[in-house]
Amino acid sequence: MKWSYQIGSIRGIPIRLHLTFLLILIFFIYEFAVHDIKIVEYDIIIGFGGMDSPAAVKYLFSITTAVLFFSTLLFHELSHSIVAQGYGIKIKSITLFIIGGVAQMEDIPKEPRKEGRIAAAGPAFSMTIGILAYAIYDSFGPVNPARGTFENGALIMLGVIAFYNIILGIFNLIPAFPMDGGRIFRALLATRMPYIDATRRAVAMGKGMAFMMGIFGLLTLAVGGLWFLLIAFFIYYGAAGEGETTAISVTLEGLKARDLMTGLPDVIYVPPDWTLDQLIDVMFKTKHTGYPVQESHDSPVLGVITFSDIHRIPEPDRGVIRVKDVMTSEVIAIEADADAFDAFKLIAPGNVGRLIIMDRGRMVGIVSRTDLMRSIQFRGAYE
């Protein structure tokens, strides 16, 4: 089942909605429509439940407000992306899901100043929108029964946008890596220590805060603590995952794909007209599980064949079926002078077992998942 769908793009950045986003959207629509929460200190009302209007009108205002609020959440993520694009970083996509939004960047700059600015852009946008919305509300408010339905609805809408954006901006500044505040915290640490050490401290801080949020969520489960549990889960595993990725990035720094590859003439290729039985004999001898398919080392790569491709074919047919009949024609390749970490990003998701290394249109080597992981372990242990 597909969990996220692209709904458009902004500045060339694909915008995606995760199916779990529908849950939070419906929840907010319901909460806005039925509740009438008063923030006495600021004289604003969060919700349309107290309006003297039909339920349909309340839900219409609620739907409009929820869409506007989540639009500001989208632009919160877009503000990160715009600053990152200014530094030449490619943004793969922005995805909205149940506990917020994520701008997926190809890489996070290791320069503290750049990372700090990218991280601060989101909270700065949310705080600005919140303050502007409250300033408008303060000029025309407060809500008054003597006003018309549309005027009061618009004022409540402004109050909701102001309140939640200010809360969003402040919450994101909590130094819990990988949230925005955690990234700012890492950027500050990185001005005084190596980037990898700054990351480790930021990850430890993030995990600690996630643990405390989780405890608080359990204690308040009956009154909305579930959201704290979800956020704690996101922070803990996000911190652990990004911490590991950063360590690998630093470990591979300075290496090119050609430094990790098994080069020619040591790469074993198989001709497309071989039978699968012939290939199996080679597999037993060489102990490899995947091979490029070529007529010769100097000819183009026609595809890749792996043990899993053979395993799908019934044993009696393996003496007749040819390699070209079951090979994967889509070749995942990378240039020899590409960064080694780019090779890792292609292999890491799990659906690529090996990369063909190309140089000026010709295969010069191959990097398998095992080769890459061994290189990471070796350099991590001895550098």
Structure description:
By secondary structure, the chain is α+β, with helices and mostly antiparallel strands. The protein has 2 domains: 4-251, no CATH class; 257-382, CBS-domain (Roll). The chain is 55% helix and 15% strand. It has helices at residues 19-34, 55-86, 112-140, 149-172, 180-190, 195-219, 226-251, 257-260, 276-286, 307-311, 323-326, 340-347, 369-382, and strands at 4-10, 13-18, 37-39, 44-46, 91-97, 100-105, 262-263, 290-293, 303-306, 333-335, 354-359, 362-368. The strands form 4 sheets. It has a 4-stranded mixed sheet. β3 (37-39) and β4 (44-46) form a beta hairpin. α1 (19-34) crosses α2 and α2 (55-86) packs antiparallel against α3. The protein is elongated and about 85 Å long. 35% of the residues are buried. The mean pLDDT is 88.
Concise overview:
The chain is an alpha+beta fold and 383 residues long.
SSE topology:
Elements: E1 4-10, E2 13-18, H1 19-34, E3 37-39, E4 44-46, H2 55-86, E5 91-97, E6 100-105, H3 112-140, H4 149-172, H5 180-190, H6 195-219, H7 226-251, H8 257-260, E7 262-263, H9 276-286, E8 290-293, E9 303-306, H10 307-311, H11 323-326, E10 333-335, H12 340-347, E11 354-359, E12 362-368, H13 369-382
Parallel strand pairs: 2-5, 10-11
Antiparallel strand pairs: 1-2, 3-4, 5-6, 7-12, 8-9, 11-12
Helix pairs in contact: 1-2, 2-3, 2-4, 3-4, 3-5, 5-6, 6-7
Strand order of the largest sheet: 1-2-5-6
Helix content: 40-55%
Order of helices and strands: EEHEEHEEHHHHHHEHEEHHEHEEH
Q: Number of folding domains?
A: 2
Query: Structural class, please?
Result: alpha+beta
> Biggest sheet, in brief?
4 strands, mixed
Q: Can you count the beta strands? A: 12
Proportion of beta-strand residues: 15-25%
Instruction: Give the termini distance in whole angstroms.
Output: 43 Å
Radius of gyration, whole Å:
27 Å
Count of individual helical segments: 13
Mean pLDDT: 88
Low-pLDDT parts are: none
Shape: elongated
